[in-house]
Amino acid sequence: xxxxxxxxxxxxxxxxxxxxxxxxxxxxxxxxxxxxxxxxxxxxxxxxxxxxxxxxxxxxxxxxxxxxxxxxxxxxxxxxxxxxxxxxxxxxxxxxxxxxxxxxxxxxxxxxxxxxxxxxxxxxxxxxxxxxxxxxxxxxxxxxxxxxxxxxxxxxxxxxxxxxxxxxxxxxxxxxxxxxxxxxxxxxxxxxxxxxxxxxxxxxxxxxxxxxxxxxxxxxxxxxxxxx
Length: 228
Prior knowledge:
By secondary structure, the chain is mainly α. The chain is built from 8 helices and no strands. It has one domain.
């Protein structure tokens, strides 16, 4: 610990930017986690309530119900599908596909490029700090003629703290970025499944005949949850 504190005091022009990047990175990761939690929807609870609204109040009632929800699937995906449902299934498909690709997926990727950029920059800044510290140390060794090199071994060890600090910042960020990307891929699959179920429910509502039977089959096939 004393060696690390010595590094912070002597190489403060590298240590403090690294600390700032670490703090910024933690803030961005927490922010992205909160956004992901807000985007999720428990479809096992939402679909039965949505079905009741669709049966009792029709498409307009179901649309109003979806607009009051917090998750991205009902609030953005279902709303886009219901708004174009009167134009036919093809229009619903195009509208929901556009919302997924042009609105929801970019929103889910918000902050991820910045997180990855900080991870890469932190590694390079840490390496730069080590290189500059090593250059200064070797210059000091050259200037002190006749002095043993072992007397500067502590300075060489301190130079490596810059690289270590950069890696400590970068490794968790890269790991978080991979997990966020995997979560987005899973969420995209959940959105496409939800879009298919919405089309079946709307078709059943429009046909009028056999609506209850078809709707029940749709709900029973909902063996997934957008929480994951």
